[in-house]
Amino acid sequence: MSSSQPKKRVSAAKPAPKQLTKPAPKAMPAPKASAKKGVAPSPPTKVTHTPKSKKRTVQEAQEESDDEFGNEDMEDSGDSDDGEAEEFPEEDGQDMSSADLDSVDEEAESDESYMDGDSLVDSQEELEDEDEEEEESDDEDFFKEDEIDPNFGRNLDEPLPEESDYKPIRREYPEIDPVYDSDSSTEENENTVGDVPMHWYDDYPHIGYDVDGKKIMRPATGDELDKFLSTVDDPDSWLSAHNYKDGKDVKLSSEELEIIRRLEGGRIPDADYNPYEDSVDFFTSQTEVMPLSAAPEPKRRFIPSKHEAKRIMKIVRAIREGRIVPRKSGYVPPKPKYYNLWNDAEDKPREEHVMHITAPKMKLPTHDESYNPPAEYLPTEEEIKEWNDLDKEDRPKNYLPQKFGSLRNVPGYNQFVQERFERCLDLYLAPRVRKNRLNIDPDSLIPKLPSPRDLQPFPTRLAIEYLGHQGRVRSISIDPTGLWLASGGDDKTVRVWEVATGRCMATYHLDELVTSVAWSPNKDVAVLAVTCGYKVGLILPEKLFSPELAIHSEDFVRAGFANVGTTEANAKATWKQPTESEYAQGIRVWVHLLKPVKQVTWHRKGDYFATVAPDANNSAVLIHQLTKHQTQQPFKKTKGAVQRVAFHPSKPMFFVATQRYVRQYNLQRQELVKTMLTGVKWISSLDIHPAGDNLIIGSYDKRLCWFDLDLSSKPYKTLRFHSEAIRSVAYHKRYPLFASCADDGNVQVFHGMVYNDLLQNPLIVPVKILKNAHERVDSIGALCVEWHPTQPWLVSSGADHSIKLFS
């Protein structure tokens, strides 16, 4: 031992206790073969002994003596906090030699009787003798002379003598058979179909495929009698099992039969498995000299920093002397004050609004804003050209990524001042208010519409088709009784049909195209108004009505000629009598206008009717009185091109539809009541609800708008069900139904219920689409729809020269 190393101080207060040692255990013999076949022998119990060193240090002997005798005095004066032996520096420069240490160890061995009692030594020796006798008897049974290595126990590292009898035992293994087919991993499986259900091949003559991809044909199988005879002839048939994948019977081996027997008996299939093996102690109760522990260092080992201690003491002295005043509880640092440079008066701080939201922060720069961006961020020439061609508002970014060799080569950003100015404008002019988010179920916003079956009756199928016109049928009308149907078209004829049978009862030939027909709503007067070219004709079909009604209608229509001299004539319209041939046809009165007439409509009483001539400018709308043969112009100046007009069903109201607006006038007060903002580009048709509180319009831009006159001047509902321009819309006089037709050839039927309760909105439900009601001719489909006055029947006309009734 070198003199530089510290020595351990030996205490001579008490002799060191003797160490208890055991002899080294013998090698365990091989297990005997089990007497019973198929039963695995239990493995021998392994007994391990931890050998102890014969020579120990004085410190270890002292620790054992302290543990056994409980000498508290020794513990107090012995180890340090870490449980290590106390070390002392060298005394007088002398070292303890190895001879001194050996003498100390011998003294500790000689005093074993002092440390251990007789009873402990005797019992320990008796146990060791019994173990040795049992082991010797086991060695005789388990070992054979030819299996024992004569050189067992020799140190293999030492070289052998020249003339040595050392003969190592060589274990002989069975010879390797090159044609080895017992391993299931190397055996060839004929059927390589894979993990596929075999019932897939029930309808095929093959059962799978081999390695080469060829089909494996299904082997021939006999009936139940053949199976029975085969079991009688073959005594080993009960040892076979059927392989469904190969379609063959496979004989089971004795090992497989043994596994089946053990499974039937509820035992473990592996015969060599022992569930009752002795447990192995993987963890020992003895404390290791160098334990593997990740426990944190104890606080007693912490060494404080002297430099930090000096700094802390400096602060503590300053606090004691009053040079540093600590903050009191509840201290709030003062807020910085800002002053308005542009106002001399003192500004009072304004509290922020409760719903105020701070302005969002600017986004952090990305890679493409770097002065040396990666190559994938640099734009190509095409991208640069495309960026330059865009307007400033449409550019996704205000800059293009550029690459510079160093930061000093980066020029100044020319848009810096502009962007800061826009940022200030955004912060100053953009109001930000917090809005509470509403958690609304989207399904609750969808109205729950009733089933169409609950909304019957409505027309669903074609009942009657009226054929006879040679051109487009532009207008149809049903008389108040519901018996007669009038129609006019491009073939310059007006035809009257019997609604129930579809027969054409009368035909009137005119000089111009017929644009509109309308029956008088008065049942006591059977008059049909017809527009063709620049004139309006009043027709009396005498053959269709009774003589009394025909005479009354004749007097009603021609009574105005007696007042021609007494009233002032209007230059915009001239009342004339027909010729003899026209009178014979049934035409009673002609009203000549300055421009072509497009529409005629009746007042509910049957004495007034209005005409529309869009090209007549201010005189586009004229109202005519039949009994006095007078014509008056209600508007001195019209706002826009008039498309349609209609009388209110119960009030002295008059509706005028221009291209984009619908205006409601009071004829009594002669004033404008309301202007409906339709939001469409061109109005094509108009109709008023029988109750007078709602109206619908159709437009050439495929939209149908429902207006609630008591609710708003904007549409209550806008329906877009047609794919082409809407030509006509109509309400039913009794049932809550309305319909529309368009150039797509379809007719849409809707349920429109209007409630008497003003707080309840109208119910609008689409119930039926009469697809391809009329064929399209030159991109024109259905032109007009009309409801039967008493029945839920719908009549439509189109460009295919036909009229159809749906019931």
Automatic annotation (TrEMBL):
<feature type="compositionally biased region" description="Acidic residues">
    <location>
        <begin position="123"/>
        <end position="149"/>
    </location>
</feature>
<feature type="region of interest" description="Disordered">
    <location>
        <begin position="1"/>
        <end position="197"/>
    </location>
</feature>
<keyword id="KW-0698">rRNA processing</keyword>
<comment type="similarity">
    <text>Belongs to the WD repeat BOP1/ERB1 family.</text>
</comment>
<dbReference type="GO" id="GO:0070545">
    <property type="term" value="C:PeBoW complex"/>
</dbReference>
<feature type="domain" description="BOP1 N-terminal">
    <location>
        <begin position="201"/>
        <end position="459"/>
    </location>
</feature>
<dbReference type="GO" id="GO:0000466">
    <property type="term" value="P:maturation of 5.8S rRNA from tricistronic rRNA transcript (SSU-rRNA, 5.8S rRNA, LSU-rRNA)"/>
</dbReference>
<dbReference type="GO" id="GO:0005654">
    <property type="term" value="C:nucleoplasm"/>
</dbReference>
<dbReference type="Pfam" id="PF08145">
    <property type="entry name" value="BOP1NT"/>
</dbReference>
<feature type="compositionally biased region" description="Basic residues">
    <location>
        <begin position="1"/>
        <end position="11"/>
    </location>
</feature>
<keyword id="KW-0853">WD repeat</keyword>
<keyword id="KW-0690">Ribosome biogenesis</keyword>
<feature type="repeat" description="WD">
    <location>
        <begin position="466"/>
        <end position="507"/>
    </location>
</feature>
<dbReference type="Pfam" id="PF00400">
    <property type="entry name" value="WD40"/>
</dbReference>
<dbReference type="GO" id="GO:0000463">
    <property type="term" value="P:maturation of LSU-rRNA from tricistronic rRNA transcript (SSU-rRNA, 5.8S rRNA, LSU-rRNA)"/>
</dbReference>
<dbReference type="InterPro" id="IPR015943">
    <property type="entry name" value="WD40/YVTN_repeat-like_dom_sf"/>
</dbReference>
<protein>
    <recommendedName>
        <fullName>Ribosome biogenesis protein ERB1</fullName>
    </recommendedName>
</protein>
<feature type="compositionally biased region" description="Basic and acidic residues">
    <location>
        <begin position="164"/>
        <end position="174"/>
    </location>
</feature>
<feature type="compositionally biased region" description="Acidic residues">
    <location>
        <begin position="61"/>
        <end position="94"/>
    </location>
</feature>
<feature type="compositionally biased region" description="Acidic residues">
    <location>
        <begin position="178"/>
        <end position="190"/>
    </location>
</feature>
<keyword id="KW-0539">Nucleus</keyword>
<dbReference type="GO" id="GO:0043021">
    <property type="term" value="F:ribonucleoprotein complex binding"/>
</dbReference>
<dbReference type="GO" id="GO:0030687">
    <property type="term" value="C:preribosome, large subunit precursor"/>
</dbReference>
<feature type="compositionally biased region" description="Acidic residues">
    <location>
        <begin position="102"/>
        <end position="115"/>
    </location>
</feature>
<dbReference type="InterPro" id="IPR036322">
    <property type="entry name" value="WD40_repeat_dom_sf"/>
</dbReference>
<dbReference type="InterPro" id="IPR012953">
    <property type="entry name" value="BOP1_N_dom"/>
</dbReference>
<feature type="compositionally biased region" description="Low complexity">
    <location>
        <begin position="22"/>
        <end position="37"/>
    </location>
</feature>
<dbReference type="InterPro" id="IPR001680">
    <property type="entry name" value="WD40_rpt"/>
</dbReference>
<comment type="function">
    <text>Component of the NOP7 complex, which is required for maturation of the 25S and 5.8S ribosomal RNAs and formation of the 60S ribosome.</text>
</comment>
<dbReference type="InterPro" id="IPR019775">
    <property type="entry name" value="WD40_repeat_CS"/>
</dbReference>
<comment type="subunit">
    <text>Component of the NOP7 complex, composed of ERB1, NOP7 and YTM1. Within the NOP7 complex ERB1 appears to interact directly with NOP7 and YTM1. The NOP7 complex also associates with the 66S pre-ribosome.</text>
</comment>
<dbReference type="InterPro" id="IPR028598">
    <property type="entry name" value="BOP1/Erb1"/>
</dbReference>
<keyword id="KW-0677">Repeat</keyword>
